[in-house]
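User: Let's play a game. I give you a shape written as tokens, and you guess the letters that built it. Ready? Here's round one.
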């Protein structure tokens, strides 16, 4: 092969490798953005006609327990509400 042909091939291979790295970076960015968009939390309501469980804990927005119920032998309810809340 001629020297010019080898130099042309090497230049083309370098250019293709650079383009592939750029395309891989763009693909990773798109996948990252899509995964962030897919995991975006939204407020949703789940409706059910019946829920059966042995223990149920209601929590507030901060994750603090408000009410803890346990139904092993009868019903036991513990309330963790602050004193300023009016219970009905």
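Assistant: Ready! My guess for every position:
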């Amino acid at each position: 092969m001629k020297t010019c042909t080898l130099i042309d091939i090497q230049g083309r291979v370098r250019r293709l490798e650079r383009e592939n790295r750029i395309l891989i970076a763009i693909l990773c960015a798109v996948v990252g953005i899509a995964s962030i968009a897919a995991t975006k939390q939204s407020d949703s309501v789940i409706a059910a006609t019946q829920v059966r469980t042995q223990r149920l804990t209601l929590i507030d927005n901060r994750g603090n327990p408000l009410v803890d119920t346990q139904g092993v032998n009868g019903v036991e309810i513990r309330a963790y509400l602050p004193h300023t809340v009016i219970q009905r």
